[in-house]
Structures are given as structure tokens and as C-alpha cells.
Amino acid sequence: MKTFRTLELSVQFYEMVEAENIKGHLRDQLLRASSSISLNLSEGNAKRTTAEKKRFYQIAYASAQECKTILQLAKAEGEIRDLADKLNAWIYNLLKSEITVRNFGET
Questions:
Q1: Cα separation of 23 and 27, whole Å?
Q2: How many domains in the chain?
Q3: Which residue from 21, 51, 55, 91 lies 20 to 30 Å from 62 (Cα-Cα)?
Q4: pTM score, two decimals?
């Protein structure tokens, strides 16, 4: 089985979010949204049809976009913002890639 690099990157992002010093409701929402990315990528990867996969990958992409906005509101900078941008790009490419969908989400 091939490595699902986008999922691995999303787990790395979640771990970085956990270590980030953001307070209050933005932290809670960031933790929920960042975990949603990994969970939806994983669930989508387990689906058989292209339509099912894309639905879960789209949810992951929306959660990644939400994380970027939360980080902007929290005025977070540096590596975490860069990783959020990279993760968004990878999920976007996953959504657009017919090869990825054909190979059951493996990248």
C-alpha cells in the first residue's frame, strides 16, 4: 500500500496546532477543524466510489480553509501558516487529480 502523504501532512499540521499558543474559542475551533481534515481524508480514502471520495476530500478542504482563516484571525505566523498553505494546496490537488481518485486516494 502506498503512503497517503496528504493524510500524513494533515496529522503533522494537527500536531503543530496542538502546540500553538492560541487562546479561547479560536483554539477550540482550530483544534476541531484541524482534526476534521485528517478524519475526512482518512474516511474518504476508505470509500470506493469517486463521488464518495471527492465528497470527503471536499469537506477536508473546507476545514483546511477554515484553519487558514482562524490562523489569520489569531495572527499566527511562520511555520504553521506555511504548513496550512501547503496542506490546502495538497488537498486541492487531491480533489483535482483523477489518478489519485482512481487509486483510492493514495498519493
A1: 5
A2: 1
A3: 21
A4: 0.87
